Amino acid sequence: MFTRLNISRWCLVAPAAMLLATACGDRAEEAPTPDPFISTDNPRDELTEADYGDLDPSQVGLNTPWGRNIVSKDAPERDPATLTNVSTQSSDGYDRAIFAFDSHIPGFRLALGTEAGGGCDGTGEAIEAPAHLAVELTGARANRDGSATVTDPTRALDFPAMTAAMQTCDEGDSVRWILGTTGEIEYRIMETLGEPRLVVDLRHP
Predict the structure, then answer these.
(1) Lesser CB count within 10 Å: N end or C end of the chain?
(2) Is 158 exposed, middle or buried (0-12, 13-18, 19+ CB in 10 A)?
(3) What stretch of H or E contains 42?
(4) Model confidence over 161-183: pLDDT tens digits?
(5) Which residues lie below 8 Å from residue 107, measured CB to CB, with a gap of 6+?
(6) What is the pTM of this model?
(7) Which H or E element spans position 56?
(8) Sheet (strand 107-113) strand order
């Protein structure tokens, strides 16, 4: 049996419950829709022996799924890392660029686009290609005492996804590479734990 006190309490609680339910409903309606270019699967579970290529699976740390969105990571608070080598290769299903460093992996920002200028300010001439993947390395340099550390900073490639690679900036602890692509491709990255390397894969069309 309800007493007058119980009824009063119910009158206070019921509106609050209705407000809470309404607020929860609003949140559910405002939930962002999944990005169609980002996989929700665990990328490590998806990697196969072919995906690793020459990499030791036990030495692969960060790895991202295939996508087209910007991928970035802040530079660590350390002295600049020196880029010692950039290698390119084509494998079954993807083309690969490997950026090797002397001490650690610096900060980076990767972005796809149809236009990419050369030079540190992005206004000079760069690679003529249908699309580009800009690889910005922060807290990094590609020279020692003014001498370039990468012996082949410009190369033309005849790969299914990657048509060229060019270093367009090495100034003020910032290094920039442009990877020319055959069109709107997907890409992924991996980091190796032993020898510090940033691995960039471009998926074949």
Answers:
(1) N
(2) exposed
(3) none
(4) 999 999 999 999 999 999 999 99
(5) 72, 73, 74, 75, 76, 137, 138, 139, 140
(6) 0.77
(7) none
(8) 71-73, 107-113, 131-138, 174-181, 162-171, 154-156
